[in-house]
């Protein structure tokens, strides 16, 4: 996980991405871009470098994003 943390904080420090951290057991992540795009990542695993055999679904869908973050 240190390599991922360093990469993400480097992107944040260079103003390439806006980043917030939360330690959570949730299996769903919602992301909104500055371009107005909406993404959802959900799956069976916890995020980390030792994900082994997990499955994830990566969606670009505003309606599912709003549903998952509780807007609908």
What does this structure look like?
- The chain is of the alpha+beta class and 72 residues long.
- It has one domain (22-72).
- The chain is built from 2 helices and 3 strands; from the N terminus they run αβββα.
- The chain has helices at residues 2-13, 62-69, and strands at residues 28-32, 38-43, 56-60.
- The chain has a 3-stranded antiparallel beta sheet with strand order 1-2-3, covered by helices on one side.
- The N and C termini lie far apart (34 Å).
Total helices: the number is 2
Oligomer: single chain
Distance between the termini: 34 Å
Instruction: State the strand order across the main sheet.
Output: 1-2-3
The H/E string reads HEEEH
Gyration radius, in Å: 13 Å
The main sheet comes to: 3 strands, antiparallel
- Assign the structural class, choosing from mainly alpha, mainly beta, alpha/beta, alpha+beta, or little secondary structure: alpha+beta
Q: Give unreliable regions as ranges.
A: none
> How helical, in percent, are the residues?
25-40%
